[in-house]
TrEMBL record:
Gene3D superfamilies: 3.30.1330.30. InterPro entries: eL8/uL1-like, H/ACA_rnp_Nhp2-like, Ribosomal_eL30-like_sf, Ribosomal_eL8/eL30/eS12/Gad45, Ribosomal_eL8/Nhp2. Belongs to the eukaryotic ribosomal protein eL8 family. The gene is Nhp2. The lineage of its organism: Eukaryota, Metazoa, Chordata, Craniata, Vertebrata. This is H/ACA ribonucleoprotein complex subunit 2. The keyword RNA-binding applies.
Amino acid sequence: MAREKPEAAAEAEATPELSYREQLDFLNPIAQPLASRKLTRKLYKCIRKATKHKQVRRGVKEVQKFINKGEKGITVLAGDTLPIDVYCHIPVMCEDRSLPYAYVPSKTDLGAAAGSKRPTCVIMIKPHEE
């Protein structure tokens, strides 16, 4: 039994991650505007940097709360989240408050960029002095 766990972990690490093109197959119909490959990389880099400065809000509940409070920032949503009802109200809230938002193809990559092992479907990047 103990032997199976390391083998399974090694096997999971050996499986290649999906490319940007392959991730597009799993998108929701509401995932518009979808970030391009280049913009997706920039958003992940920005999220990593903002996480170091504690300038990130993650999760539907937390992001929704701070949008309602009037906090400014960029909202990044994962395009492969199911069911859609979980977060379909967030873009409407962003448009009402004229906040920028964009979809990226993968919630797993979004969570990893925020320094979490868990997938995340919504992240808000707060502005920093720099």
